[in-house]
Predict the structure.
Amino acid sequence: MTQLTLAKALNTGLRRALADDDRVVLLGEDIGQLGGVFRVTDGLQQEFGRERVMDMPLAESGIIGMAIGLAYRGFRPVCEIQFDGFIYPAFDQIVAQVAKLHYRTRGAVRMPITIRVPFGGGIGAVEHHSESPEAYFAHTAGLRVVTCSTPQDAHTMLRQAIACDDPVLFFEPKRRYWTKGEVDESFEHAFDRARVVVEGADVTLVAYGPLVATAIDAAVAASDEGVSVEVIDLRSLSPLDLDTVEASVRKTGRLVITHEAAQFGGLGAELAASITDRCFVHLEAAPARVTGFDTPYPSARAEEHFLPDLDRILDGVDRALGRPSARDLLLTSGGAR
Amino acid sequence: MRATVPDDRLEAELPAPPDALVQLLDPEGRRRSDPLYDPYVADLTGDDLLALLDDLIVVRRIDVEATALQRQGQLGLWPPLLGQEAAQVGSARALRADDFVFSSYRENGVAYCRGVELPAIVEVWRGTAQAGWNPYDVNMATPQIVIGAQTLHAVGYAVGCRHDGVDTATITYFGDGATTQGDVNEAMVFAASFGAPVVFFCQNNHWAISEPVGLQAQRPIAERAPGFGIPSMRVDGNDVLAVLAATRRALERAHRGDGPSFIEAVTYRMGPHTTSDDPTRYVDPLEREAWSAKDPIQRLEAHLREAGILTDETSARIAAHADAIAAEFRAGCLALPNPAPLSVFDHVYAEPHRGLERQRAEQQAYLRSIGELEEAAE
């Protein structure tokens, strides 16, 4: 066991994948000599050569499209999209090609492509560098969508994503790149299983990616008030591990979901609907969502007003518990609903 | 005074567009000698030339049969290639078996030459599947419908071949409209940067549905490639020998490991974009008539008759072969089974996906509940 940052844990995961399977190739902008703008690929081109770790011309659609051709040829490409907001030029190649080729060819052509995407806000960045586009991809049949929240999961899940015969969108919580944690390279878990991070009895709080740490903080704060919060890290957004969430909600009867992405049509909506469908009679209150707003991601000095934080999550917990919450003010003041 | 001053208008910097077109058979079927391209077809025997004629006639016959099948309600849609037979047959017959093709949806003639089973060509258009064949069986990807997307796949495949240390070449087909797409331009940058062994084969058929090529390009399309660092050729796309020679030349470069090439095959879409299109709304009948005088089959027939290679007897034999293929094609098409109800869930993922498995189980239960699921048809 070693202490690694999340970024370094991804780096060691990539190194292991490159060493274990010579069909693994890395494609991205600035991933070679520079080692990536977040240094996730640091040293890999030096170690594995320019054919295995390829600096790509600046075109995201081109990167994914070329990865498709490599996958046709039997390679396992791992693509880096430099920032979340730059994935859109590749949207067609991802949703119309990568996602559909296995289906289109009745299983003849496999697309074991991993698309790494640093995502989410909280780093004071300019526009297009703080987005959470995961719902677009979770909505697309044929893709798997996962995200990690700890160095251990970053390492393990990235290797699992690369080994998976399906295409995987791998969302990396960029504001947690420098979080340190123990990493055991031999650790394994079910790739698409959620993790109960904190056990609790009163309310289930579901988070993923960058907000898992915030959710843990919220659980600690709630326990100071005598509320026992169970925190679940979803890990996989497609498929969703509804079994794990269902088991928790059957116990607590209350569900709060938090993510940075906008609320409308987001993962929270999907989870709320699915859990309501499965656990209707066990729910004591409507599921509560604590999310980014249905606005574009704001400028850096306004992002604290956009991102779900400890207090907003606790407010959501209060709402799920039927305790006084900000929502009551809205109702009593006769404001817009 | 004025005459002695150099023309200072910026457009004077543009060189005049070359009107040269590689042509080995003129529209009347006369063999034109070309010292650069003649060697690439010097090996062709009379039988080889007859085989090319057979291909052209069979491919057209399949196309006509498919249009008829659509008109009879047996196909949802069909994109005719009428007029483009030489561009497709000439290029496809230049390929080695291990070369790999990434095409658009109109390359049914290429698919035929690659050995795709007859009904498989039409499966997508009948609606029984999203793809008719296993790409690895014939080294041809199933046709791409999104305009230009396949060109990037070709570059990736070509780079993969080089990584693997094999001299396999990749060829990608697209139209004049596709040359406007970002993906095609990205593909050319990537191919040039990585020296990918890929041939960009553009069939300039003058139309992108109703939009004339002039809306996509102000200069000959072949001129774009050198700007990317890719050598290019502009050939008469209705001349099967010129197309074969140019493609062999490009493939030779790719097999040698010298990198990408670009071919603009100048041809004409004699029919509609698809069977749903009405070209009478936008095609000038005089322009179409002028192109019908450049027909790819007529000129090869004229050439072979003049050379004494094609006789009435051979001609009848080829026609009978085409009719037999068309009959086989029709029968195969009509025999294609409809997909089973639950097959919509098949192959979405290569590995189990618990969300989809649950949905499939629910749909299975639903179909059972309404008595619409035969156990055998699952």
Notes: Chain A has twelve helices and 14 strands. The mean pLDDT of chain A is 96.
